[in-house]
Design brief:
PPAT, 159 residues, 5-stranded parallel β-sheet, Rossmann fold, ATP-binding, 6 helices, nucleotidyltransferase
Length: 159
């Protein structure tokens, strides 16, 4: 069985994330969405909330599993026999950082990283930008799934 992981904080998941996840789900038999737990960083949504949102918006993909992890991603991969990490690249600046991570990951454990160029529609999109625009009342309805929009509006008291 061909397995891959799409890691991230997903705070919140955006249409850009979903684009990469859906494309990975067509290439692999099983795709894990690994939600990073960083206790030093306070997110807008708790990890359990993010897991729930991601599970709901990826439910149409029968081969996507959603789990939280802390520690090294390569350990998550080893524990689940996952040989590949799928990462979306928006710009050259993403590549510089992600290349270093990919080289470290293959050196640590032999886990490969596959870079998928983002759909140009989402080339500027990040969770941080979505949160900032939403905080100031901007329209983000075209950037996140409706379920996530509702959750953001409730969290930011914009409904």
């Amino acid at each position: 069985m061909r397995r891959a992981v799409c890691p991230g904080s997903f705070d919140p998941i955006t249409n850009g994330h979903l684009d990469i996840i859906s494309r990975a789900s067509r290439l692999y038999d099983e795709v894990y969405v690994a939600v990073m737990i960083n206790k030093a960083k306070k997110g807008l949504f708790e990890v359990d909330e993010r897991l729930d949102l991601i599970r709901q918006v990826t439910a149409e993909y029968g081969n996507v599993r959603v789990e939280a992890f802390h520690g090294l991603l390569v350990d998550f991969c080893k524990q689940r026999d996952i040989p590949a990490i799928v990462k979306g690249l928006r710009a050259v600046s993403d590549f510089d950082y992600e290349l270093q991570m990919a080289q470290m990951n293959i050196g640590l454990s032999g886990v490969e990283t596959l870079f998928v160029p983002t759909n140009p529609t989402y080339s500027f999109l990040s969770s941080s930008l979505v949160k900032e625009v939403a905080t100031w009342g901007g329209d983000i309805s075209h950037l996140v799934p409706p379920l996530v929009l509702d959750a953001l509006n409730k969290r930011l008291r914009k409904d």
